[in-house]
Amino acid sequence: MAKVAFIGLGVMGYPMAGHLKARGGHDVTVYNRTAAKAEQWAAQFGGRTAATPAEAAKGQEFVFACVGNDDDLRSVTTGENGAFETITPGTIFIDNTTASAEVARELSAAAAAKGAHFIDAPVSGGQAGAENGVLTVMCGGDVEAFEKAKSVIDAYARMVGLMGPAGAGQLTKMINQICIAGLVQGLAEGIHFGKKAGLDIEKVIEVISKGAAGSWQMENRHKTMNEGKYDFGFAVDWMRKDLDIVLAEARRNGAKLPVTALVDQFYGDIQALGGNRWDTSSLLARLEK
Ligand SMILES: NC(=O)c1ccc[n+]([C@@H]2O[C@H](COP(=O)([O-])OP(=O)(O)OC[C@H]3O[C@@H](n4cnc5c(N)ncnc54)[C@H](OP(=O)(O)O)[C@@H]3O)[C@@H](O)[C@H]2O)c1
């Protein structure tokens, strides 16, 4: 049993912190900017709440965060009343936010200056993966800290990998998003074509999903795409945030990402249709409008 804090009880963080308590059996203190959510979490799982990230992190062995973007992450770490005010030598800070590799390196250096460790640990698997505790976690950081953190992270994960030094977890998550972007557009075009051809989409997917075209997106999203339902899942606004990080990194490292750049623009069209919170599978909506 470890002493753990969790900062950021959103769609992802709330159930992840819950698994650390209920499944991991850890002593968990939570902080959330909107305090009511932290109270609700404590009532449901029986942990403690703190008024600031600094208070939450005090005296903990492991401090987790899962907030929105780079700036949110800076605010809860090196900002006023941030967790880095109270972390001490040996503390391991695990960041589950999808953020840039740059901020991971910056916070890794800031943690090291205090004798603490920082692991960038973005996740894949969505809301369902968080609720069922079966996320994939891509980590960047030093080996010793990772080995200690892994046994705690295991409470909400099915796969946890160390990809390299600070930033390597975020770079791996970028590859994850690059692979998803083109794939979802392909799936949208396939379903769009099938409808125009007058085929039974359910039947088509039942057959081709068992062949070389099969994918997680096809298995889990074809039904709702076929029904035009997008009011759930991984929001287009989040995907654009992620692709923005990806394209900035590609400008730095010289990678050519023509399809990713195009699909990013398509997501801009979805936002213009009012689909900011729609699931990323809504790419089909712009083909049907
Ligand atoms: N949702 C998914 O399917 C999914 C999948 C993989 C990765 N992710 C990534 O995981 C991260 C969290 O996603 P989510 O879906 O859980 O988002 P969310 O539901 O919007 O939750 C965001 C959390 O961060 C807190 N927060 C945001 N800005 C803050 C700030 N400046 N200071 C303090 N707290 C702040 C929010 O507090 P309040 O409650 O006060 O707003 C909330 O607890 C994002 O980086 C996202 O890209 C999400």
TrEMBL record:
SUPFAM superfamilies: 6-phosphogluconate dehydrogenase C-terminal domain-like (SSF48179), NAD(P)-binding Rossmann-fold domains (SSF51735). GO terms for molecular function: NAD binding; NADP binding; oxidoreductase activity. It comes from the Bacteria. It holds the Pfam family NAD_binding_2. Gene3D superfamilies: N-(1-d-carboxylethyl)-l-norvaline Dehydrogenase, domain 2 (1.10.1040.10), NAD(P)-binding Rossmann-like Domain (3.40.50.720). Keywords: NAD, Oxidoreductase. Residues 3-162 form the 6-phosphogluconate dehydrogenase NADP-binding domain. Residues 167-285 form the 3-hydroxyisobutyrate dehydrogenase-like NAD-binding domain. InterPro entries: 3-OH-isobutyrate_DH-rel_CS (IPR002204), 6-PGluconate_DH-like_C_sf (IPR008927), 6PGD_dom2 (IPR013328), 6PGDH_NADP-bd (IPR006115), HIBADH-like_NADP-bd (IPR029154), HIBADH-related (IPR015815), NAD(P)-bd_dom_sf (IPR036291). The active site is at 173. GO terms for biological process: organic acid catabolic process. Its EC number is 1.1.-.-. PANTHER family: 3-HYDROXYISOBUTYRATE DEHYDROGENASE-LIKE 1, MITOCHONDRIAL-RELATED. Belongs to the HIBADH-related family. This is 6-phosphogluconate dehydrogenase. It comes from Sinorhizobium medicae.
